[in-house]
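User: quick one, fold this
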Amino acid sequence: MERRSPILGVAALAVVVVAVHLLTAALGKPFYLTQLSMAAYYAIVVMGLCLVMGYAGQISLGHGAFFAIGGYTSAFLTTRNVGARLPAGLREALGHVGALAPRQDLYGADVVAVSPWLACAIALAVAAALALAVGYPALRLKGYYLAMGTLGFGLIIYRVLLGTDALGGVDGIVSVPPWHLLPGIEITGGKPHRVVNYYVAWGAALAVLLLILNLTESRVGRALRSIHGGERAANAMGVDTAGYKLKAFALSAVIAALAGCLFTHYNGGIDPSEAGVMKSVRYVALVATGGMANVWGALVLGAGLTFLSLRGWFGSFDHAVFGGLLIAIMSLAPEGPLRPLASWLARVGVRCRPRSGTGKPEPETGSPRSEAPNPRPET
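Assistant:
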């Protein structure tokens, strides 16, 4: 039953996703699906960061950079004409296996660019390599060195993206082509594909959720929890703390890069603001809001608060309201609001449950009135 519980929970959330779509259709507000799809991609980053913060016990302030690395790598490779620089035979062979894809540039000229599938694979490999390069020295140190190292890494990536003309500079990269997944299914922000992309985005979020839930219940997850509980004790028990932390950090970076790839093709472009420090700080705050080691809270709170921000419900007070919510949740429910809510619902269910088979509560026993003898003798 313990192995089935994550699948059942994810299936229940999938039903909620379908219900939200039907609700938006019934209310005549299908445009909500656009922000809900974007919120799902951002929630993927938050869930990956939850693996590092909640289980490995490390703080990363560079996940916005990994998100941008995935998006920029895919955008750059899918918008550049690489066909003219390759020999005809090699170009034909790569096109045969689907590594290259013909498209049109901004001026209507026919070009041959890298296919989104290969571009995404390259982006994930680049993110993993950079995560290992940054995490290897930082994760072997104590304290908050990882936070400082990833903060510096994020600043470097942001400035590189901002000052590189080949990457669009301040404007970023635009006109990123759609990603054709299956016949009739493509990742793009076009209005006719709004419903399909909503399910693609949340399908990816549910897949990442199931992956992390299964990972945390495995031997690796138990090792990460032991590291979070006490690194010295975990070392004494023979746990390779440095290795596990590095692998968790690399996996989290790859998840963030995957979200960046999907978001870039859905949005049709990406700009340097996605690698900004405030983006990374916001991801950390969302993990703390949902509960450090609560992947469900990271998904629900991350998607919910991001959706409200994208809809502009708080206007110019967005950061102020978000900060207030963070303070309130961390003060009243440090483990996230979902666990206290679940406990309260369980208590309410126990109180409302009938105590006897007749549906009526059983009479109390042991009260003074029931135990007292009859003062009047029988006649």
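User: anything notable?
Assistant: Residues 4-313 form one domain.
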